[in-house]
Amino acid sequence: MQTIKIITTLIIISIMTTSCLGDRKAVNVSEINDTSSFVNEDFKGNLINFSKDGSACQNISTADMASMYNVSEDKVEMLDVSKSDRRVPNSNPTCQFYLKLGATDFEWPIGSMSLIPDIEKDSYSAELSMYGENWEEVWALDKSISKSIEWIDDMGRAAYWNESKKDLYVRFKGYTLFISPPRSAVNKVETAKNRDYKSIAINMAKAAGFVN
Q1: Using CA of residue 114, residue 143, residue 14, residue 117, what is the dihedral sign?
Q2: d(CA 201, CA 114)
Q3: How many CB atoms are located within 10 Å of the residue 189 CB?
Q4: Is the pTM of this model over 0.85?
Q5: CB neighbour list of residue 128: distance below 8 Å, 6 or more residues apart
Q6: pLDDT of 121-177, one tens digit each?
């Protein structure tokens, strides 16, 4: 009965969210029930463990980002927010990336990389969160009602790409890696390039040392 209540609540929340984003599709019951096929059975453990005082980008470089976007390194700025005076106390390790492409900084493509720790089991939202104890059920539900989510094989414990939002989530033991590759909706030159943001996000995860 508890599981039914959890799933029902999740469906309501997810439908409300996807309706706002225009990403909703008819609920796929088989996908809701599939809470294991996307989990990586060959996962051997974290390459990088979570630390609240750690960095999300200690291994990735501006040269890496420049190579992914085929620009000169001087066009890339990287800010490790966790190590700067801009960090909010107790916030998650986060890095921001800026590509100095455009007439003004308003047009610069901007992206980020964050480490999001698991929610403690006894927390109020643990059962309903994609970062909680029932994360497999939450991920399966999100996939079942979204047109844009696709599983990515052989990354962490599990991973998915949201094409609509251009976001990558990779689940590890104890935390989730979130990557939003730099892009700009107002920079028409950049938009016209039709970059493969999924491949860029995956390469960012690899360059940062989270996956091989």
Answers
A1: negative
A2: 12
A3: 11
A4: yes
A5: 6, 9, 10, 13, 134, 138
A6: 766 566 778 988 889 999 999 999 999 999 999 999 999 999 999 999 999 999 999
